[in-house]
Each structure stands twice: as structure tokens, then as C-alpha cells.
Amino acid sequence: MNLSFSFAILRLMVFCCLLCSPCVVRGQGTKLNYDASGSLLSVAPLSGTAPALSGPQNVLAAAGDFAAFTVSANGSPPLSYRWFCNSNLVAGATGSSLLIINVAPTNFGAYYVVVTNASGSATSAVARLDLDADKDGLADNWEITYFGSVTNQSGVFDRDRDGIANLTEFLEGTNPTNALSLLPRLTVLPYRCVVTINPLLEKYTIGQSVTLAATPDAGQTFISWSGATNSTSNVVTMIMTTNRTVIAQAGLPLAESLDVTNRVLTGGDIAWYGQTADTHDGLDAARSGRMTNSQTSWFQMTNTMSAEGTVHFWWKVSSQENYDYLKCLINGVLKPGQISGVTNWQYRTYYLTSGVPVIRWEFTKSSNDGQFSDGITLGSDGARTTFYAYGPWPGVAPLDAAWVDQVVFEPYADPLRDTDGNGLPDLWQYRLFYSLGQSPTADPDNDGINNLDEYLDGTDPTVNSSQKPRLTLSSVGAGTVSANLAVWSSVSTNALPPSGMMTFTNSLPTNGRARFYRILAQ
Questions:
Q1: Coil, helix or strand for 32?
Q2: DSSP at 117
């Protein structure tokens, strides 16, 4: 049949069926309009919608298992389905799900589905059915590629220690043996504030920018970020190159809570903040941020001292005794008197030189304290509901926190001020003993020279080698009469040591006469 004859028959059929009126003939996805003579008037898209697909997902199975692929399709009905495996049509697979009852080696491979309706067709994404003989959630071929075996790793392990489990790296298509190959996660811990994250995603791409904005709770002030970023601005922008944890700390202003006008800096793993729940003055005090094992929280300030003087303050701690400590450092030097355990408020004074010293308060938690405690109730048998949450039982575990209140700087106009009246200036006692009330006759370094003499000599009463030497002479016999000082006899040839004390005994009889001694300097 030639083309002209076919076209004539088509025109005749249209004419007979529609009685010379215009007609519409629908083809897949289009509408054809003809007039009574059979001439094509227009071509237009159909009013229905073509299929839109979601799925299927990858599937893992062992030989003999059940496996299923499912696709979700939207579009004008009716919809028809054709499933393909490794580009081959799967016979009898004409529904939205493809079920494989008894998985065989020939079933492994790539699957997709083509969905069709009168408005068009759509092809799904490719999903794989892979062998997982050990059923650890990882495809065997993937494990062999990266680990060389299907038995030396599992889905919960983290081979490259990047914070992303092997299973997650498998699902996300990253390299589980390369710590730089990951989709970074962001963890934000807000305290006394609300943090807005833009964009807010479960995971990010390497190099993606994220903006964090902290809004303090009512009556609070933003203090600082800590962790992966350190800033006192409430808005920060980060570049995601690895997993990051950020802590946003708000509270009462630290200077106000410490009763100073100095600029106060805070840092470490988490910032200090001002609060009213636990104070010495009944108003407010600084408190360390919430911490876990092997972390440090500190704050510091400088103060211009016009003369030698002191810094006074109150502090307390609730911690694991002999493991966690609240400390004070001056110009980077740790001072004696750090506190640990569960204490009440204690008063402390430290000596300061003139100038601009740096004073830092630091709370550190050891690696033995494995979890947050924060007042967890302990059983009568001492059983711990949180690992290493040591404390009194029955009772409440330590809060894992430290407090400081009422900081006072005092330059001494009179460096010889002796508040306790023991003949030893206050500054001298604070500098060497860190407290007043020292006995002037005591000899703490056991060098034979008491505190008062060491103060007068300008030596250190806490260091045995710091002294001015003394000579002690003893004589056998009695008598107090005078003798001429013209003739001298040698009684000792021992050399005087550069420091310390030399003692010798003259055993010659005095015959009732006084004896005089002299030291020969060479």
C-alpha cells in the first residue's frame, strides 16, 4: 500500500466516524487536532502528567535470601511498569515492586524500572543488589576493595577514625580508609541560648560554609563559642572540612559575676559563665561550663598593680576527688592550694608582683571521669548510674563544676604591713607561705634559721640552701676572766663552707679564763 492510498483511507475513516465535524486523535504525550477533511490543525501536549519517580534503594542479601525493590510513582493513571536487571527486561515484573524470593548469583547486579502512562515515561535511578554473605550491612565487594577481606571489619567500626562508621561511609559512597574522605557532620551544643544553623543539614560537603547565630535566653548575655571555633561574637561562619562540635555558652557577664571591672577572657573546651544558682555573696558567681573527661575550662584576667600586693577570691568545686582540680596560675605558674573533691566555699589569697600579672583560674577533668555526672543520684551500695561518677553514697554525684566569686586586687601602700603582728610582713608571708599566721620562731626548711631571722637576712625560709651561714662555737670548761688578745693559737683548720653552718669544739681546758675566737678570711 502506497503512502497516498493510506492517507486517503485515514481521511475516509475520520469522515465517517465524526460526520464531518472536527476530531481529536491522542498519541502518547500529545493531542492531534484535525478538521472534517482530515487536515491536521494543531499539535498540543496532553493535559495529564507524566510519571515522576522516587526510588528504588540499594539492597544487600546473601544467597537464598529474600530481596525487594520498590519504586514510588506519581502521574496520571494508568501507569505501567517494566523492570530491568543489568539492562535486561525482567519477565513478569510489571508492578511497583520487584520481589526476588530466593536470591541466586545471577540476581546480583543493577536494577531500574521504566514507568509509562499516556503523558510520557520516566526511568528510575539505578539500585544495586549486592552480596552480603556475612550480613554486616556492607557489600562484600566493597569490603574486599577497601579492607581486603569481608571478616576484619564491620559496619559499626570506624577504620579511618574520622568519626563516621564504616556503614555510613558505605551508604554515602566515601572511602572508609581515608579520614579526609567524608561528608562532615556538625554538632552544636547550646547552653542558655538558642542557635540557628544555616544551612541546617544532616551532613555537609567538604568546604561548605555554615553560619551559626546564637540568641541568648532572656536575661542572659552571649559569652563565647568554644570547641571547633573560638569567638565572642554571637554570629560565626565555619568551613566544614571535617566533623565539628561547637559549644555556644551564654550566661551572666563574667566581670559582673566576679565583681571586677577587668576584661575577662574565657576558653578551653568550654567557657565559664556567670550564674546566680550557687554564689558566695548571694548575688552571682562564675561557673565552669559543662565538661566531660580530659577537658579544661578556664578564664583569666590581667590587673595593673601599682605596687606589690595580693589577689583575694572565694572558690569551690564539686568534682571527682584527686582526679579533677580547680587551680590558679599566675603568669603561667601553678600556685599551691589547688582544690578537688566536693568542697564548700574557701577563701584564697595569692601574692602579686607590681606590673601587669596574668591570673588564670582553670578547672580540669581527668581521663578517668568518663561521663557527665551533674548531680546523678547514687545508690546506697555505691552503684554508679554513670561511669566513674564518684561521690558520696547514698547521695548525689559531683556536679563536675567549679565556681569563683568576689575577686579583689589589692596593691599594698605599706609593704611592711603586719596584720597578724608576728613580726613578719603580710606580703612576705603571702609570697612564701600563701597565708598569714606563720610563727616567727618556726624553721620549716630545717636549716637551723628561724622565719624571723630568714626574713631579716632576706633569705627563703622554705628552701634549705637559702641562708646566710652561722658559726657556732662551744667550749669545754668554765670561767669568764679576760685574757690579752695579742697571742692567738690555732684551734681549727677547717674551711668555712659557702653556705650552711660549721660547728667545732675546743676541748682544751680554760683554766678559769675567758677565750676569744676569730675567723681568718683568705
A1: strand
A2: E
Secondary structure (DSSP) of 344-386: --EEEEEEE-SB--EEEEEEE--TT--S--SS-EE-TT---SS
For residues 38 and 428, the model is more confident at: 428
**pLDDT, position 379:** 44
State the pLDDT confidence band at 30, using cuts at 50, 70 and 90: low
Integer Cα distance of 325 and 30 in angstroms: 79
Write down the domain spans for the chain: 3-45, 52-131, 252-410, 469-522
CA–CA separation, 156 and 144 (whole Å): 17
Distance from C-alpha of 94 to C-alpha of 45, rounded to nearest angstrom: 27
pLDDT over 50 at 16, yes or no? no
Q: How many CB atoms lie within 10 A of CB 191?
A: 19
Tens of pLDDT along 343-381? 999 999 999 999 999 999 999 998 765 444 444 444 444
The predicted structure's pLDDT at residue 293: 83
- Average pLDDT of the residues of the chain: 83
**Helix, strand, coil percentages for the chain (3-state, nearest 5):** 10, 35, 55
Which residues lie closer than 8 Å to 488 by C-beta, 6 or more apart? 518
**In terms of Cα–Cα distance, which of 465, 519, 468 is closest to 494?**
519
The residues, ordered by sequence, that sit 6+ positions from 337 with a Cβ below 8 Å of its Cβ are: 328, 348, 434
Tell me whether strands 244-251 and 186-191 are parallel, antiparallel or unpaired.
Answer: parallel
Residue 193's identity, in one-letter code, is: C
State which CATH number among 3.30.450.20, 3.30.200.20, 2.60.120.200, 3.40.1130.10 fits the domain covering 252-410. 2.60.120.200
Reported pTM? 0.66
Residue 18, amino acid: L
Domain formed by 52-131, architecture: Sandwich (2.60)
Q: Which pLDDT score, from 0 to 100, does residue 513 have?
A: 60
Rg (CA), the chain: 44
